[in-house]
Amino acid sequence: MINKITSYPRSILYLSTCFIMTLHCASAFAKPVLHQKKNKHFDHIIDHRDNSDEEVSDLNNPQGNPDSDPTQQLLLGGVNKYLDQYGIQLGLSWLSETAGIINGGKRKGADYAHQVAFSVDMDWEKIIGWKGFSTHMMILNLAGRNASTDYIGDTQIQAQEIQGGGYGRFFHMNYVYGLQKLWDDRVEIRFGRDSVGNNFALSPFACQFMLIATCGQPRSIQSQQGFTPWPGTNWGAKILYRPTKNTYVQVGAYESSPWGKGKGGPAGFNWGVGAATGAFVPVEFGYDSNFGKKHLNGYLRIGAGLDTSRFDTWSAKATGSGKKDNRAQYWIMMGQMIHRNDAVKDHGLYVIANWGHDSPTTANFKDLYNIGILDRGFWHARPYDQFGLMMTYYTVPRGLSRAQQYQINNGMVSGGNGIYSGLLNGAPGIQSNSMLFEANYGISVYRGIMVMPVFEFFHNVAATRNTYKDAAVLGFRTNVVF
User: Fold this and answer.
1) What is the DSSP letter of 150?
2) Other beta carbons within 10 Å of 333
3) How far is residue 462's CA from residue 154's CA, in Å, rounded to a whole number?
4) Residues 481, 34, 17, 345: is their CA dihedral positive or negative?
5) Is the separation of the CB atoms in 6 and 459 below 8 Å?
6) Strand 187-194 and strand 419-421: pairing?
7) Is 375 a domain residue?
8) What are the two backbone dihedrals, phi and then psi, of residue 299, each rounded to the nearest 5 degrees?
């Protein structure tokens, strides 16, 4: 049975909802002359848009100040403009996430984590005339501590998504893959050292939130070895076919190996397959929407994956029976703009919803649900600011809960008063379900720079009911695209 939300988190949700409405009302009445002027220009752009592929429309390339766009490059724009004629593009970014626990959890405190990413993309059609072929490489520096482990006490969900991979590495080779496009880009073949999460169940909005519940896929499908998320990589390939401009179907095959033994090792250069236990085979259907005269864009992803590896079931891990099972995963993800705010292609109010399911006999999640909103361009005076709100609810398998109860009943763990050490899944107590909440506001500081204050709330920390108090977290995220 789902726990009732206590009065404290309910108050938080109410206050956050009021905050959202206040922001929208403030933006609606701020500078009415500016609103009228921009809306008139926007309607003109929409009404006179040429939808042909050959024309570059004002909707996709609005007039504006590029120094206000945080997605643009801060320093490398000129360099890449020059290098583009030679088929080379460089990327450099710094992402930091700080999370401080202000109430509940294990104790108060704060942790900092960061990611520095350097990428090289090469277009071999420009370099040697190999039509449709490109290569891509990324190197990471990952450092910092995990606030969920240190202060919240949650073994399931990281407050800082860049700590989700468990890596702290000065140098880590992330991905190296080749991409071949055929038949006017209707077919794509991608192969090399890659992540499943770079190709499947991928949302353009997932990592606009700091909780790993959302970034980069629903946590239930990317928490174990088969569906490899960032920053782990392994050998794999996929083929994608577009029957129409707005639809695609893709299938892949990837090495499945345990965390700590596969995934490239600490530096990412261990490319052997000795740790592989099987293959992960995902398939996905995708649809990219573009509705009406206002061009309300969005996406739909429906997919499934099967890991051919054999895993100990939860009952086997508790009793030693030796029983094993395969693992299958399913997901449905959508994001749809329901109101356009201005002429920038992705500026509008989006509704986001996700569902991810994992095999209950072997997985540490059963079902996970996200629902939220992302609003970009709602304040005309600050067109590149954005606001995000996301709620998550997830359950763990009953087999896991029963196995944990078996461990306690048979004296296989230490601890007491509802907090234990040695339980399966690294849990502090018997697990059932949890609810999470995040609200954030992205502030466009300058070209290539966005800062984001974040509020998070953990109800039933680590999916347990009698361990730690519900945790309130204040965070701060900085993203610089050099």
Assistant:
1) I
2) 25
3) 4
4) negative
5) yes
6) unpaired
7) yes
8) -155, 155
The length of the chain is: 482
For 25, the token pair is: 């009302």
**Residue 173, domain member (yes or no):** yes
Distance CA 370, CA 266 (A): 32
From the list 454, 298, 476, 446, the residue with the least C-alpha distance to 385 is 446
In the numeric block, which tokens belong to residue 303?
A: 């997919």
d(Cα 382, Cα 202) in Å, to the nearest integer? 28
Nearest residue to 286 via CA among 205, 227, 395, 203: 203
Q: DSSP H helical segments within 372-468, as ranges?
A: 398-409
**pLDDT tens over the chain, length 482 residues:** 334 444 444 444 444 444 444 444 444 333 333 333 445 554 555 444 434 443 334 444 444 577 789 999 999 999 999 999 999 999 999 999 999 999 999 999 999 999 999 999 999 999 999 999 999 999 999 999 999 999 999 988 999 998 866 667 888 899 999 999 999 999 999 999 999 999 999 998 889 999 999 888 899 998 888 898 888 889 999 999 999 999 999 999 999 998 777 677 777 888 888 889 999 999 999 999 999 989 999 999 999 999 999 999 999 999 999 999 999 999 999 999 999 998 888 899 999 999 999 999 999 999 999 999 999 999 988 889 999 999 999 999 999 999 999 999 999 999 877 899 999 999 999 999 999 999 999 999 999 999 999 999 999 999 999 899 999 999 999 999 99
Domain that holds residue 102: 7-27+64-481
Tell me, what amino acid is at 424? Answer: L
What are the counts of helices (DSSP H) followed by strands (DSSP E) for the chain?
Answer: 8, 18
The count of domains in the chain is 1
Q: pTM score, two decimals?
A: 0.87
Count of C-beta atoms within a 10 Å radius of residue 295:
19
Most distant CA atoms of the chain, gap in Å = 73
Of 262, 259, 261, 240, the residue nearest 251 (C-alpha):
240
C-alpha span between 201 and 192 (Å, rounded): 19
Cβ atoms of 375 and 349 within 8 Å: the answer is yes
Is beta strand 187-194 parallel, antiparallel or unpaired with respect to 88-105?
unpaired
Hey, what amino acid is at 326?
Answer: N
Nearest residue to 355 via CA among 387, 384, 395: 395
- For 161, which DSSP code? G
d(CA 470, CA 451): 26
Instruction: Classify residue 48: in a domain, yes or no.
Output: no
Question: Burial, 86: exposed, middle or buried (Cβ in 10 Å; 0-12, 13-18, 19+)?
Answer: exposed
Give the C-alpha separation, 365 to 431, whole Å.
10
CATH number, domain containing residue 464: 2.40.160.180
59: in domain: no
CA torsion sign for 209, 212, 214, 217 is positive
- Strands annotated E in 227-271: 234-244, 247-256
